[in-house]
Amino acid sequence: MNTLIKQTLAASILSTMIAGTAMAAPAEAPPDFIKRVADGLISSLKDDHAKLQNNPAAVKAIVRQKLDPHIDSQAFTRTVMGTYAQSSSPAQRAQFEKNFRETLIENYGSAFAKYSNQTYSIRPYRKTESKNPVVTIDFINKGEKIPVAFQLADKGSQWKIRNINVSGIDLGLQFRNQFAATVKRNGNNLDKAIANFKPDAEAAVEKK
């Protein structure tokens, strides 16, 4: 194959890859994505607020439906497992992800169950070419602003939430510390640690 043909072929392949990447990029702007997710969740909680106060199962069902599909649980798993992700087996990581998703739903479910017509505003967003843009929401609760920053992951055709920062506290990092402590409490037995790990978002946010 002569040089000209090789160059032409290489250019063709490269342009195809670039075009494919561009076409696969999320069509929705990051703040629009976060607003859609937040509005969908808050709207459902407002509609049945009275019924949800003493019905944690119903809250969990709403959170699972409205929030869970938008979480990049694989990224969360890698972040929270930390160095243990490298030494774990695929089966262990899969089990960790399954348990972690369920306990996250419980965490967020109990938090959102207290929602009583609070409002929120999205901070001005500075457009970036990063694959992991951050969108920050200020939740207003009884006059107090609670900033919640969502770090997103570009999954090609859609955005996913890969980490959350509440009032300056990196939940992924705090959960990682909690998991490391769980591993030690279980004698460095990873299977036991995975089975017993219960991430505590409230404790993580309060740790300043």
Automatic annotation (TrEMBL):
Keywords: Signal. Gene3D superfamilies: Tgt2/MlaC. The keyword Signal applies. It holds the Pfam family MlaC. This is ABC transporter substrate-binding protein. It comes from the Bacteria. InterPro entries: MlaC/ttg2D (IPR008869), Tgt2/MlaC_sf (IPR042245). Residues 1-24 form the signal peptide.
